[in-house]
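> forwarded from #structure-qc
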C-alpha cells in the first residue's frame, strides 16, 4: 500500500511540475516550422572583416568547360560578392545554381564531399528560398537569394548581409566551398575559398581548412527543469518517510 501511494505521488508531481523543457527560453513545441524560418531563427546580419577577400577559382576539369571564380569581400555593408563564370553547357540543363557548401572540396576534387549548403540556422532547402525575405533563406543559397545563372558568360555583383568573412561564425564561408549545379541539382564543378588581405597576407582559420563552425547545441533552460528537480527531492523524502 505504501509503495502504491508513493508511486501515485511521484506521478502527480511529475505531471504538475515536469512541463516540457525549454530550449533557448521557448517551449520545444513552439519552434518555427523548418524550411521557412530556420530552427534557430532567421539569419542575422553578419559581422565582417573589412578588406578580407575570399576567392574560389573553379579548376580546369575534363568533365566540364565551366570556368571562372566566385569572390566575397568583407565590407561595412556586408559581403561584397563578385561572380564571373562562363562555359556553361546547354541551357536545357539550366537555369544553373550555385551555393556555398558546408565542407571544403577534398584533395581528390569530389564535389559530393562538400555535403549540404551552408545553413547555420538549420532551415533546410524546402520550400525554396524567397528572395524577398533573404533572412529566411539558407545563408549559403546565393542563387536563391540573388538569382540563378541564366546566361553564359555570367557576371554579377551584389551585397549579402548574411554571409561573413569573420572566422569562427556559422556564417563564415572562408573555410568552405562553392558548388555549381544544374537545375536538377547535379553537381558540375566546385572549388574552395582561399582568403587574403589586399597586401597578400592570409588570416589564420581561413582557406582550405576542414574545420567548420557548427550551430551551438541548444541548451535546456527555464523553470521546468528546476521544478522537476524539486519534485525528485520531494519524492526522495517521501520514500524515506515510508521506510521509517
Amino acid at each position: 500500500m505504501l509503495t502504491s501511494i508513493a508511486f501515485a505521488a511521484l506521478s502527480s508531481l511529475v505531471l504538475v511540475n515536469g512541463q516540457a523543457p525549454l530550449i533557448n527560453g521557448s517551449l520545444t513545441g513552439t519552434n518555427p516550422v523548418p524550411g521557412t524560418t530556420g530552427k534557430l531563427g532567421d539569419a542575422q546580419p553578419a559581422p565582417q572583416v573589412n578588406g578580407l577577400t575570399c576567392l574560389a577559382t573553379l579548376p580546369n576539369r575534363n568533365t566540364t568547360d565551366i570556368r571562372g571564380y566566385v569572390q566575397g569581400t568583407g565590407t561595412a555593408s556586408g559581403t561584397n560578392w563578385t561572380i564571373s563564370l562562363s562555359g556553361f553547357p546547354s541551357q536545357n540543363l539550366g537555369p544553373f545554381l550555385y551555393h556555398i557548401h558546408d565542407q571544403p572540396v577534398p584533395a581528390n576534387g569530389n564535389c559530393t564531399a562538400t555535403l549540404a549548403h551552408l545553413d547555420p540556422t538549420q532551415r533546410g532547402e524546402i520550400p525554396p528560398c524567397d528572395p524577398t525575405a533573404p533572412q529566411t533563406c539558407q545563408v549559403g543559397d546565393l542563387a536563391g537569394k540573388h538569382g540563378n545563372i541564366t546566361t553564359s558568360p555570367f557576371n554579377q555583383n551584389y551585397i549579402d548581409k548574411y554571409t561573413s568573412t569573420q572566422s569562427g561564425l556559422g556564417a563564415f564561408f572562408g573555410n568552405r566551398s562553392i558548388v555549381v549545379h544544374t537545375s536538377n541539382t547535379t553537381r558540375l564543378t566546385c572549388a574552395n575559398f582561399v582568403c587574403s588581405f589586399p597586401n597578400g597576407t592570409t588570416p589564420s582559420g581561413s582557406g582550405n581548412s576542414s574545420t567548420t563552425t557548427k550551430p551551438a547545441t541548444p541548451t535546456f533552460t527555464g523553470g521546468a527543469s528546476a521544478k522537476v528537480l524539486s519534485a525528485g527531492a520531494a519524492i526522495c523524502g517521501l520514500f524515506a518517510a515510508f521506510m521509517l
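QC bot note: The longest strand covers residues 187-196. Helices lie at 2-17, 142-146, 223-243.
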